[in-house]
Amino acid sequence: MPTSVSGIATRQLRREFTSNDVSTRVAVDDLDLIVRPGELVSILGSNGAGKTTTVRMLTGLLLPTAGEAVIEGYDVVRERRKAALACGSSLGGDSGLYPRLTALQNLAFFGLMYGMRGQALKRRAAELLDHVNLTDRADEPVSTFSRGMRQRLHLARALLHKPPVLILDEPSAGLDPHSAASMRRLVRSFADEGHSVLLTTHDMREAEELSSRVVLMKDGSVHTEATPAELRLGAARQHGFVVEVIWNGSDSTGNCSNCPGLMDIKQDRGVTRLRVRDGGMAVQWLLAELGAQIPSLSVSPPTLEEVFLSMTEVR
Questions:
Q1: Which domain holds residue 245?
Q2: Total structural domains in the chain?
Q3: What keywords are annotated for this sequence in UniProt (predicted)?
């Protein structure tokens, strides 16, 4: 049994699928994962890496082939209802909402399912509709909603009963930038209040902005697990740091060829980007040699997107 009694814990979680020709495909392979109270963990991976299968097992929509998973100490198979009540989930798509009901009626219905009643339910539903910017559409049927609006209502439904655990499958899919930013603030605040949050995402900015830890899945298993900063700094040892130089007046790109540890140099509309082995040493050299020509200078490790592409061998 996984050792954690709070949050999410899995041990050797496995899911196989059998095709019509009786061949077996392993979608999730002996997954060990822990999300503690107050943590927000993002799962990244290419299509087919096992992300969605993992969250579907954790939310009771798929039975594991082997292994164990617990939500707040409740086994997701043997204590399915208790585990489900301890977990709010948003898996997106059209399932999980009633299109003929209004947004408010949907939340009222699910609130009753969670044991909520009366004015407390009304206040909570109104509060969440405001948080996801749907107050002005509260009395309209969900069938008239865009994909992004449904996605926001999914999030409100997941948060309705203030569950200790929140599981989100690509929560920002279909959202415009403003709505996505609001969603990130709401989810981050939920984790800051001490809840356990697990989300899958293809949005590297989202993962970097929100995550306590990032889990990179590949071929159904955990390939790497670390904080975003650790991932970026680790990648910098292999791929170097990026130094961006904006010139004052004439372009002096050619003068950078002697920069210590230079791996690559590119020029783009008056901005020079150097890839170097040691960011600090490169900055010191640039300021000493060309400082009078440089009004702006920045240094950064590889982005999380570069880390992801490198680790998944996508080019």
A1: 240-311
A2: 2
A3: Antibiotic resistance, ATP-binding, Nucleotide-binding, Transport
